[in-house]
Amino acid sequence: MKFYTWIIRYRLYLGILLILIGVGANVYSGFWPAFPAYFIGLILIAGHFFIGPLRLLQEYMESGDLEGAEKILNSVRFPNLLYKPIRSAYFTFKGQLAMMKQDFDGAESNMKKGLALGTPLKEVKGANLLQMGMIAMQKGNMKQGESYIRQAIREGLPDKENEAAAYLQMCNIMMNKREFRAAKEFFRKTKALKPTNPEIIKQIKEIEKYISRIPG
User: Are 135 and 201 within one domain?
Assistant: First the structure.
């Protein structure tokens, strides 16, 4: 795995080196002895520009190294050359990092680019829409936030933690709109999923203190 990671990190330079070796072999021995170096070099260079280094993000995201993840994203000089699904993931990751840094305008802009490019997995689209809903709510746009979160629930979400987050946000929106019956129903759905995320658990405990006393 480390070797594969090393190849992804340095494939542009390896590709250029192999092309140069191919040129030398071509000069002294002819085209066919140089062909393997040309072929592998071109594949490595194409992979750098059309696939990019996004596979490297996983280790940084899992360890919480946002600075390292940002460096990987910033190493992509020409994102428009990336293969479309990978370009979508690129903008989604940029949006997530911007959100973590409380840059809601940057997060919204990048998330929209990712959504516009589409994704073959409905769950990924649902997760992106949920993020967009949370961004809208952070910016005080409850109506837009509700629209995005409802779309996220319809599209489907990748796991129970994301589902619980979506239902909890809908519970809060319904409380603000004084639609208490709907708020209680979304709260019931949130608890039924038994989330383990500490922040969600904390919010559930806070809402439990008063939701039984509201009408509906």
Answer: yes
